[in-house]
């Protein structure tokens, strides 16, 4: 994508204080111009060799997109480390604010993605119903589910990081209530999860769990590799696994989004914060935990979708 939107310009623009607008499409809150993007995706040309990483925000996107990028580069990590993950795996519905984009004559991201040569690895947080309709039968889709309690915590800190002007004064309790209402960027986590959970047996869909990645990263790297049609030797899978540990990604400027935001105005925290399982236990009150448990029972009853406590 950096051949369409130059990487140095993109990083320079991101170093400015940005003010993102939002729009609602079919009840889902999206970034500014998201309505136009979703409409365009209805006729977006999905290719047979596309690989998509789709998640609800903060469910493990950056982690798994790096695994997929390494796999699609056939484990050639020296090539992977030549370009930042943001350009190897474009975020198809995310655009710089409209005024900045137009001033610099930048295309919408999906338009840039259209010009990327195959094979493409594409990232999205869109719920299933807003993705290109032929995605399921033409390309590979990897979806990651994470315990929603940990998602709430990670999402809280993430929004403070990327949108400090709007979120700096928000308390965790206030954000918890916002998440419980479902009126949040990309909509309710439960609708998002369940739309993909129902697709889990589709041959072109691989559903992963964040917690399983933490327990057995090497096994899941191999699972992703086979799903994407790559038969790699053990030493290559070992190298990808080492490259994609949380500690190594966090210190790798080509894998950690913090390196793109390095020259920005002071922000709260880091894009790759902890990557832990169970961090919710140090944030939730007893009442919040009970409320979330009740919500999970209500929304997931009869679906077979459960979460480790």
Automatic annotation (TrEMBL):
Signal peptide: none annotated. It comes from the Eukaryota. It comes from Patiria miniata (Bat star). Keywords: Transferase. SUPFAM superfamilies: P-loop containing nucleoside triphosphate hydrolases. Gene3D superfamilies: P-loop containing nucleotide triphosphate hydrolases. Residues 48-304 form the Sulfotransferase domain. InterPro entries: P-loop_NTPase (IPR027417), Sulfotransferase_dom (IPR000863). Coiled coil: none annotated. The keyword Transferase applies. GO terms for molecular function: sulfotransferase activity. This is Sulfotransferase domain-containing protein. Pfam families: Sulfotransfer_1. Transmembrane segments: none annotated. Belongs to the sulfotransferase 1 family.
């Amino acid at each position: 994508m950096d051949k369409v939107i130059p990487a140095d310009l993109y990083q320079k623009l991101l170093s400015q204080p940005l003010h993102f607008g939002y729009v609602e499409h079919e009840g889902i809150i999206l970034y500014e111009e998201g309505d136009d993007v979703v409409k365009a995706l209805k006729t977006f040309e999905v290719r047979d060799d596309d690989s998509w990483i789709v998640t609800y925000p903060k469910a493990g996107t950056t982690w798994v997109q790096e695994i997929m990028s390494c796999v699609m580069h056939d484990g050639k990590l020296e090539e992977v480390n030549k370009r930042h993950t943001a350009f190897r795996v474009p975020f198809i519905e995310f655009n710089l604010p409209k005024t900045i984009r137009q001033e610099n004559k930048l295309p919408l991201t999906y338009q840039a993605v259209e010009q990327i040569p195959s094979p493409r690895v594409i990232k999205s947080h869109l719920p299933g119903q807003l993705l290109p309709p032929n995605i399921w039968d033409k390309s590979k889709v990897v979806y990651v589910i994470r315990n929603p309690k940990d998602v709430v915590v990670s999402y809280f800190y993430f929004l403070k990081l990327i949108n400090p002007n709007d979120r700096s004064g928000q308390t965790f309790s206030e954000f918890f209530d916002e998440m419980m209402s479902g009126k949040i960027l990309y909509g309710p986590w439960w609708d998002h999860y369940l739309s993909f959970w129902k697709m889990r047996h589709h041959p072109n869909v691989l559903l992963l769990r964040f917690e399983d990645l933490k327990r057995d990263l090497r096994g899941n790297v191999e699972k992703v590799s086979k799903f994407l049609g790559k038969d790699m030797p053990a030493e290559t899978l070992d190298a990808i696994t080492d490259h994609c540990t949380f500690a190594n990604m966090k210190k790798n400027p080509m894998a950690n989004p913090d390196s793109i935001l390095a020259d920005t105005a002071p922000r709260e925290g880091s894009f790759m914060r902890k990557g832990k399982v169970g961090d919710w236990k140090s944030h939730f009150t007893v009442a919040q935990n009970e409320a979330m448990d009740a919500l999970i029972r209500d929304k997931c009853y009869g679906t077979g979708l459960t979460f480790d406590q």
